[in-house]
Amino acid sequence: MRRTLPHLDIAERVGVVLVLASIAWSVIASLLAGRMPSLTSPYVLAPVVLAGGVGLGRLVATRARSEHVVAALVVVTTVLYLGVIWTDGPAKRPTAYANANAAVAVQVIGLAGLAMLGADRTRRVVLWLTAAGAVAVIDANASRAAFVVAVPLLAAIALMAWHPARRRAWALALGAVSMLVAAGCILVLASRPSWPAPVSRGLDPTRNQLWHDALNLWRQHPVTGGGPGSFEDYSALAKDADTVAAHSSLLQVGSETGIVGAVLLGLLTLTGLAIAARGAAPYTVVGAAAWTALGLHSLGDHLLEYAPIVIAAGMALGWAGASRSEELDVSEGERPVPG
What we know:
Layout: H1 10-32, H2 42-61, H3 67-85, H4 98-116, H5 121-140, H6 144-162, H7 169-191, H8 197-202, H9 206-220, H10 230-234, H11 249-276, H12 281-299, H13 307-322
Helix pairs in contact: 1-2, 1-11, 2-13, 3-4, 3-5, 4-5, 4-6, 4-12, 4-13, 5-6, 6-12, 7-9, 7-11, 7-12, 9-11, 11-12, 11-13, 12-13
């Protein structure tokens, strides 16, 4: 650790502290609730995987123009698509959850967008086709929420490929505000016994009860939560494997680790944006858009316990933050274009 920390900037050091604090608090919350802490809990694994993803993204950034990076993105997209179409039943491979597959595909779009910046024309074409393949994965998984968050990400990539930004503050502010507003909406909806008709048509009605149960559990233990794993015991719907989670990162964390856990989650989310902000502005915009896409999607679904999603999101942050403006240099006649 002593050898690693000097190479980290302030945002990354804060991220390490928050990762350790999140893990420590999950252990404390378990003990306070009379539960045995688990090293395999998502509260332990997800922060570790995220940190590993950021480190891997930093490494990839140094090899961004390598043909192996493009090939890896093509392979991952192909595996995601074949996993879905070759699976019978609802438990779609490779994650066994359709929305999780789609969330991985959204992050692949973000990684492909980062690889496009500064790439030559041939690689840009391949990467746009890869992004199109990731959209096909989302469609194959029939994830409406993933479509909703993928559209702004694709728009950000197209904008940065066509006209690279010089400023990054607007993207960071937009990401932070959109996630804050969405979190407020989730809390309001969770507090209502019934939803307006337009909301009920757009969201699975089962989420109404799941979110309501999670908020009630949180209210009973506002500071410390009911302990990791307590939602499964509290909600009657959680007896079913498909509804074992609250289907909201905020409500899941809040109900099981209280306001302390929710604040740590919020701080870690903002620190992710700060890590992306270390790089050149176009990379920051794409990295922040990919991170915001996961943040918004996870507020209405259970995604953060899936390691492939978290590591891909961490890679996008690390790659964006480690990229520098000189990587945008391209030969004359090879100005980045959408495809």
